[in-house]
Amino acid sequence: MAALPVADTYPALHGSEAGAIAGAVPSRRAEFTTGRTAARLALAQLGHGATAIPAAPDRLPIWPTGISGSIAHSAGYAVAAVRHGASLGLDIEAEAGLESDLWPLICNKDELDLLPIDARGWFVLQIFSAKEAAYKAVYPLTRKVIGFDAMTVRLNGDRFIARLERSLGHFYAGHEFHGRLRRVEGMILTGVAL
């Protein structure tokens, strides 16, 4: 795993990567470049040399053979995690509560009812990030786009379970994905490894 502050000073993208952000605004180019730089640092931890990580037509990173990974960026940071084998998903969010008008878009009634009223925005952010991480772990295997209502999350300290509400590819309704949650330097980081 590697994390970097977003900047426009990292090495240039490999040729096959540049097309993914052709025409993007400078801030998006910086996020993308920083994410790819973090991914190369994470790959180096597994013994891989500097390699291109192009994007598929659906923008999913194309990892070296036998590697799965995830890249995320938010609030001035980019993180990447890689591993040999099964899929993984990663999300990072600025540590701040979400506005109440967003809560019903992210959480179902049962999820909201379990959250403490005085800190609901903070817990909804955790659920949002957990669902993002789980989705990013599942998407490479299913290539199916889903909404927040497709999963229900139960938080338990630094761990969570994201449960599918309906079948998705070879994952059946009720399938549970176990993940971890961590607060780091004003950020919330979530991850799911299948």
From TrEMBL:
Residues 17-82 form the 4'-phosphopantetheinyl transferase N-terminal domain. SUPFAM superfamilies: 4'-phosphopantetheinyl transferase (SSF56214). GO terms for molecular function: holo-[acyl-carrier-protein] synthase activity; magnesium ion binding. Mg(2+) binds at residues 91-93. It catalyses: apo-[aryl-carrier protein] + CoA = holo-[aryl-carrier protein] + adenosine 3',5'-bisphosphate + H(+); apo-[peptidyl-carrier protein] + CoA = holo-[peptidyl-carrier protein] + adenosine 3',5'-bisphosphate + H(+). One of its GO terms (biological process) is enterobactin biosynthetic process. One of its GO terms (cellular component) is plasma membrane. Keywords: Enterobactin biosynthesis, Magnesium, Metal-binding, Transferase. Its cofactor is Mg(2+). Residues 87-160 form the 4'-phosphopantetheinyl transferase domain. CoA binds at residues 28, 36, 91, 132, 136. The keyword Magnesium applies. It holds the Pfam family 4PPT_N. Pathway: Siderophore biosynthesis; enterobactin biosynthesis. Belongs to the P-Pant transferase superfamily. EntD family. Involved in the biosynthesis of the siderophore enterobactin (enterochelin), which is a macrocyclic trimeric lactone of N-(2,3-dihydroxybenzoyl)-serine. The serine trilactone serves as a scaffolding for the three catechol functionalities that provide hexadentate coordination for the tightly ligated iron(2+) atoms. EntB, EntD, EntE, and EntF form a multienzyme complex called enterobactin synthase. This is Enterobactin synthase component D. It comes from Paragemmobacter kunshanensis.
